């Protein structure tokens, strides 16, 4: 038994294999200073991480990045994860994927592939991705994934520049014979937070998109089409915060490319010293480290969270969002209407009504911009 039974098990392991990526999406959740981060873990070090997490109860692993396909040992990592008994997920842009690699991943035991798109329109997709060939490659690989016997799982990050074409996005997914489609409105962390003025939709845009999505759900059901549409809204238009990651250090464990362990993939920006798998085993990291215990439970909470009758439902909201918007991770998530800083969210909603930031004017996620940001 773990030394603190009230702490949940790290059931979901996110393996951020690399920050390298051929695309330049302006809403990437990677840290702004990713180009200044340390050396990537080796194959053997990832094997050790996976084995330790599995011993602690981890059941699913997501291979992510950056773009995980740039790792030449990806098939080896998948094979080892399968040998250990994980359900394996590959979260990819599809850039760098080939028929041969799909076949190799299937042989290694990969269970699930999710391919992301930037838009249903080739020009907008490629402009956001920073690649003239991205859209055609994604279409080809989405079809190839299906042809190799995988369910087609697509992810579209929606924002003010593509959400008004939600019907075209869904029609593309239907034409591709997709099985699952995640229509995920931008979550404002990392580069998305930096580019919020160019990304946050208006309330009217969101309401229209959700209405159209629901209409398509009804239509698909009536036609007997099994395609599932998942619509994810940004919490900027909510009055209560989300139960971020189902609680701090309670279910999700992220390992970054250099081995830093995080309770969520956005936590690296916090002024908290997080442990590294090069120096500590995962049992110590999960149960004993300061970083993973910093916001567990309720003792850390200030008012209004401390006396709130909803704190066991939302755990005070997102610590990263509280830090980004107020400068203090111990504050209430400003999304909450009870927060003294809720005005920040109200102002963001107002700014979205008049924002005119074009795609070309946003700060794109690339090594050059990251190095500039890292230098301050």
UniProtKB/TrEMBL annotation:
Cofactors, names only: [4Fe-4S] cluster
Domain spans labelled Radical SAM core: 7-222
Pfam families: Radical_SAM, SPASM
Catalytic activity: [PQQ precursor protein] + S-adenosyl-L-methionine = E-Y cross-linked-[PQQ precursor protein] + 5'-deoxyadenosine + L-methionine + H(+)
SUPFAM superfamilies: Radical SAM enzymes
Quaternary structure annotation from Swiss-Prot or TrEMBL: Interacts with PqqD. The interaction is necessary for activity of PqqE.
Alphabetical list of Gene3D superfamilies matching this protein: Aldolase class I
UniProt binding sites for [4Fe-4S] cluster: 21, 25, 28
Pathway: Cofactor biosynthesis; pyrroloquinoline quinone biosynthesis
Assigned keywords, A-Z: 4Fe-4S, Iron, Iron-sulfur, Metal-binding, Oxidoreductase, PQQ biosynthesis, S-adenosyl-L-methionine
Family classification: Belongs to the radical SAM superfamily. PqqE family.
Name of the gene this protein is made from: pqqE
GO molecular function: 4 iron, 4 sulfur cluster binding; cyclase activity; iron ion binding; oxidoreductase activity; S-adenosyl-L-methionine binding
Physiological role: Catalyzes the cross-linking of a glutamate residue and a tyrosine residue in the PqqA protein as part of the biosynthesis of pyrroloquinoline quinone (PQQ).
NCBIfam families in alphabetical order: PQQ_syn_pqqE, rSAM_more_4Fe4S
Species: Candidatus Pseudomonas phytovorans
GO biological process: molybdopterin cofactor biosynthetic process; pyrroloquinoline quinone biosynthetic process
EC number from the UniProt entry: 1.21.98.4
Database matches in PANTHER family: PQQA PEPTIDE CYCLASE (PTHR11228:SF7), RADICAL SAM DOMAIN PROTEIN (PTHR11228)
Protein name as catalogued: PqqA peptide cyclase
Keyword S-adenosyl-L-methionine listed: yes
């Amino acid at each position: 038994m773990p030394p603190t039974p009230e702490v949940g098990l790290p059931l979901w392991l996110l393996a951020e294999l690399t920050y390298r990526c051929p695309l330049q999406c302006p809403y990437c959740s990677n840290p702004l200073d990713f180009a200044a981060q340390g050396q990537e873990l080796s194959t053997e070090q990832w094997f050790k991480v996976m084995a330790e997490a599995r011993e602690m109860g981890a059941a699913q692993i997501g291979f992510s990045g950056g773009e995980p396909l740039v790792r030449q040992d990806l098939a080896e990592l998948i094979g080892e994860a399968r040998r250990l008994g994980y359900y394996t997920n590959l979260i990819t842009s599809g850039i760098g994927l080939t028929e041969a690699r799909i076949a190799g991943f299937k042989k290694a035991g990969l269970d699930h592939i999710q391919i992301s798109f930037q838009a249903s329109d080739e020009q907008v997709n490629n402009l956001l991705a920073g690649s003239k060939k991205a859209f055609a490659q994604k279409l080809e690989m989405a079809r190839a994934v299906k042809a190799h016997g995988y369910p087609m799982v697509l992810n579209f990050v929606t924002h003010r520049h593509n959400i008004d074409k939600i019907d075209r996005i869904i029609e593309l997914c239907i034409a591709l014979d997709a099985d699952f489609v995640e229509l995920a409105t931008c979550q404002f962390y990392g580069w998305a937070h930096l580019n919020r003025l160019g990304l946050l939709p208006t309330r009217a845009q969101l309401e229209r998109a959700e209405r159209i999505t629901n209409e398509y759900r009804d239509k698909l059901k009536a036609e007997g089409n099994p395609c599932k549409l998942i619509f994810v809204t940004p919490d900027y238009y909510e009055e209560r915060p989300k139960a971020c990651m189902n609680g701090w250090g309670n279910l999700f464990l992220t390992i970054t490319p250099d081995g830093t362990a995080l309770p969520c993939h956005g936590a690296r920006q916090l002024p908290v010293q997080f442990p590294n798998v090069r120096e500590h085993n995962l049992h110590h990291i999960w149960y004993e480290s300061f970083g993973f215990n910093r916001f567990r439970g309720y003792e850390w909470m200030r008012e209004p969270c401390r006396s709130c009758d909803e704190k066991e439902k939302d755990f005070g909201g997102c610590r990263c969002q509280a830090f980004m918007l107020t400068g203090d991770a111990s504050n209430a998530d400003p999304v909450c209407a009870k927060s003294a800083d809720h005005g920040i969210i109200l102002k963001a909603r107002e700014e979205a009504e008049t924002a005119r930031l074009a795609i070309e004017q946003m700060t794109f996620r690339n090594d050059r911009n990251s190095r500039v940001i890292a230098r301050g």
